[in-house]
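Hi P.,

Sorry for the delay on this. The queue was packed all week, but I finally got your sequence through. Input first:
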Amino acid sequence: MVSEEELKRKLERLAPAGRGMYDREGGQERFWRTVRESEDYADIVGEIRREGKRLGGTPVPELTYGLFTLFEKRGTRLEYENAYFERRRRLNTYMLLALLEPEKEERLKRLYDMIWSVCGEYTWCLPAHIRTAEARGAIDLFAAETGFTLCEMRRLLGDRLPALLRDRIAQEVEERLLRPYMEAGPFGWETARHNWSAVCAGSIGAAALLLLEPSERLTAIVLKALGSMACFLEGYGDDGACLEGVGYWNYGFGYFVYFADLLKRRTEGGIDLFAHPKVRAIALFQQKCYLHGAAVANFSDSAARVPAQLGLSHYLAGLYEEFDLPPSSIRASYTDDHCSRWAPAFRNIVWCDPAKRADTWRDADYVLPDAKWVMSRHTSSCGSFGFAAKGGHNDEPHNHNDIGSFIVSAEGVQLVAELGAGEYTAAYFGDGRYGFDCNGSQGHSVPIVDGAYQAAGPDSKGEVLEASARDGEVRLKLEMASAYRLPHLSSLVRELVWRKRELPSLRLTDEFAFTAQPGSIVERIVTLCAPVVLEGPGGPEGGAGRTAGVRFADSPGTMDNARVEDSARTAGIPRIMNNACVEDSARIADNSGTMDNARIADNPGIDDARTVVTLDNTDPAGGGSATGFGTEKGRAGSLLLRGEGSGDAALIRYDAERLKPHITKRTYSNHYGRETDWYTVDFELTKPERKSRVELEFELISTERGAD
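Then the structure:
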């Protein structure tokens, strides 16, 4: 960063603010006519018009007292936020339609009314971010964004916006943002090392650049915003990884870019934040976290699928030669952003370059040493596959207790999964955060040691012993005992080895060392696929299934609480490969026959959400020893995870003499408040010792081969 004195000198020579800051070749009017008429923009223009038609048939939602006070009373957010974001959607849509169809006066009238309505809101903040009594002087993410939005619309419309509305916007931004920013505070987000500093300070700085002419006051605001931008960059390592996930990269780094672009334009290149080497590294993070198409490595509070903001991506591609364009097919549609943010929606048009196109992500392996992540995209004649794993610590932004967690995917479908973000409520960000399965280690593919989950805090660390990508393999080896806070656990080393073959495989090895005899060791695997246990040597390639003992326990937290035990034969392999799974209170049948108490059927789920299914892999008939997994004498066990609607699956091989799998169907409330099914497969070590070693092999297979 340049010195403060040099910044002041450059800021004193700012170019005037005006519509020219957005000029494209041929001017604004010609540009919007091209957008309206060109096939290159037909999809997004159609989305905007359809949204305009939908909104025209519905009333403007009111932000009532009842909605505003719900968070304080019940801790729930979605009720108020759904109405708030619908209002922002109207504001954005009517503005874009006014740019696309300037001859239609009705568009402008609706826009004027919506601007007036937003200016009259009690607060631009969300109730979840403020104390009700301090609402008037508060600034949160969405208050700052709203001010930026209104100032940008004011500049774009120029004289088309009536003087009263121009003055009202200036007055509201002054009273709600600029004056509190400079005279109140300091606000906690000003020095945050995550998205809040970039979004809040970037939006306020951008609003000032759009609203104010060169002056000491504008210089002071921009300098203060630059201080927050420096704090934002400190939250990243030199590898550029966003620990909050690519969704928050789009958000936090996106607003950094929007501010940096306006600053570069008004200083006519005199202040160029994009020349900072860390900014370049952060820009390249996007291409390092996609597994396939829109599917991402969704550690922390991230969604599993994140459409690409093509405007932001095309802008960055114009700055950095090594920036990989995302596939055009994963373009974020106009309505994808449930928060209805103006800045990215607008720039998805004005920064979008139809000449910049990509069909797919290129194959690549990445080691991110500061984040302690590894990631791999691999394509073969059998399909597209992905792997990601993390170390890190348990005090990260939007933290999950997830040291050692990993993802295995095929064609973008997670077979070994991350749950990602849950529904944001007061409790979700409160003292009970890690009681939510998606946040605590109970909802991640990591061990449970003597009944203990991982603990939160910076002292819970995954120390990297090896992280590499070479010779067709990606490796991550971690010492992670500190995460468990168990005095008798002296070491827990997890090694993950991803082998990139035609059909890839992953070997997981955990080595435990204790100073006293452990009571239990459980290897938990998290999946969104209904698991199917297969018996016999060789899994699906083998012949007839082996005999299995099946137990049902009606408490998911109790592993030895058997209720029914029976001996049965598993289904023949072609039926198993049709996504069969165990059903409660039915029968297990082979291809011809009859059995008691349970049934393996095509394509059901495990019916009872509280049913635990335990297969103890014993052969009462004494069918001889199989070629074991793990030891020569061990009996091989195998379990299938198959993606819904997909022909690809992961076959988990394990030593059935030493490990007993327990399958539990569970639910959690996802980010949008929808109850979502997920499953745990708990491999219980039957004889834990002071030095114990557990191995699991994950083989990617195509279940369509050989299915009937």
